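Archive entry. Fields below.
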Amino acid sequence: MVNSSILITKEKLNLQACYDFVRDPSCGGIALFVGTVRNSTKAKEVTLLDFSTYKPMATKEMQKIADSALKNFDILNIAIHHAEGELLIGDIPVIIAVASPHRKAAFAACQFAIDTLKEAVPIWKKEHFVDGEVWVNATP
Amino acid sequence: MQIEILLFGILRDVVGENKLHREIVPGISLTNLRQDLMVDYPSLEQYKNYAIAINEAYAENGYTIQENDIVALIPPVSGG
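PREDICTED_STRUCTURE:
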């Protein structure tokens, strides 16, 4: 769909590209969510995160989220980009950009997109610590 | 019939493979497949809250596997 940009890449995510994709003269607000690799989990120092994906399905699920956001919120454009591979502290695993005539819909759609991505898109992260590694969320 | 089962995340570590080749009875449901897998890989017991995708979309446990289906075991996701 021309109003959505979906990407899973081993390259560094490009914030400007997401912004440029969604911006439009008819839109008075752009909401951006930028996920960032944090330096600790439960007070334990994280050294890196390793993201793996089921790429064809993850791409489809991300497209579904974009389609659903475009249908259910008063927004014009949405970009959902996710990185894969090893990311260091401060790196960007995910960017969601949403442009809308009005800010309220942009914020709401952006929140919907990141929340649904975290629930449904088949992407997994392994946290690496100085003394070991663990799959996030893997056990109930 | 022969199917391929793709594994991801922690299930790759638990089973020790990225992909399984299995001979299954045609018409087997995903519930049956889960039970069969648990017999061969008892360590799955601890991680049985995984979802199953058929042809790159989430499927219900009552779904019966068809020839050429792409089956994937999806442990709890943690993207973002």
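CURATOR_NOTE: The first helix of chain B runs from residue 10 to 15.
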